[in-house]
Amino acid sequence: MHNWLIDGVAGDRIAVDDRGFTYADGLFETIAVRDGQLRFFDYHLDRLLNGARQLNIPAPERELFADEAGDLVKESEYATLKIILTRGTGHRGYAPPVTATSSRLLGLLPGVPPARTKYIDGIVVRHCSTSIGHSPATAGLKTLGRLEQVLARAEWEDTAITEGLMSTTDGYVICGTMSNLFLVRHGVLVTPDLTTCGINGVMRRIVLERAARIGLQWRAEAVPRDHLGAADELFVTNSLIGLWPVRRIADRTYPVGAVTRSLMAELAGAGISECAGP
């Protein structure tokens, strides 16, 4: 049974004219819950509230989110907290209400830990034919509009494939359907530039902070899809899994290399126990 709070009240229904439902006019966060604790909750609120400011969606104070989230997760051992913030109800038409009253939804969803082999041996990844569109106005934000990711994830049913990579129509790889991408070339950490599209993930932020902490050089840049074959190491990240090494894309295999392992150790030290060594 999922537990949801809608504007602070237990429930499982929203208004049919809520703009989050009618226009995907809103933002969301998915937060790992481990032993009753919200992992990197402040980072998630940073992104949510920054996105609300950019989109001019009114948002409650951080303390209200913290209080409601804390009540939901306090008895959960392994789960996901989802926060949805919409512009609220409104009249028909794209023009937002002059004075909007936002809606907030917090839901606790039970989870199952991923197989340890994904952390130890790495995962198999494919390229998706569904492209990701340029949208500088919303680049980096975790908006509710995820149809491109839905279509990309629908491209495969093979359970041996864990993730699919999405590229722009001009051939630059941006992200996975549910993850950020990193590659290692000659000891330098590279991640796709997200100026025009993609989500600036919380775990992406943490990996880059940890890379700087251990003196690892990194840069964000445009990554042509055909450059992945020249990478020494590849891995993907998100806030629920932490970090998964990539061991194969099509017929190209990759080692779980020293840079990947060092960053996994850093993440384990930061409280992401899934990334701890075997």
CATH class of the largest domain: Alpha Beta
Arithmetic mean of pLDDT: 96
Sketch the topology as an H/E string, one letter per element.
EEHEEHHEEHEHEEEEHEEEEH
* Oligomeric state: single chain
CATH architecture of the largest domain: Alpha-Beta Barrel
CATH superfamily of the largest domain: D-amino Acid Aminotransferase, subunit A, domain 2
Number of strands: 15
Instruction: Name the helicity range.
Output: 10-25%
Structural class: alpha+beta
SS strand fraction: 25-35%
- Rg from alpha-carbon coordinates: 19 Å
Q: How many distinct domains?
A: 2
Weakly predicted, low-confidence segments: none
Question: What does the model show?
Answer:
With 278 residues, the protein is an alpha+beta fold. The protein folds into 2 domains: 3-110, D-amino Acid Aminotransferase, Chain A, domain 1, CATH 3.30.470.10; 119-275, D-amino Acid Aminotransferase, Chain A, domain 2, CATH 3.20.10.10. Helices cover 24% and strands 28% of the residues. It has helices spanning 19-23, 41-55, 62-73, 117-120, 147-153, 202-213, 258-269, and strands at 3-6, 9-10, 26-34, 37-38, 78-86, 103-110, 123-127, 163-167, 173-176, 180-185, 188-192, 218-221, 233-238, 242-249, 252-253. The strands form 2 sheets. Strands 7, 8, 9, 10, 11, 12, 13, 14 and 15 form a 9-stranded mixed beta sheet that branches. A 6-stranded antiparallel beta sheet has the order 2-1-6-5-3-4. The longest helix has 15 residues, at 41-55.
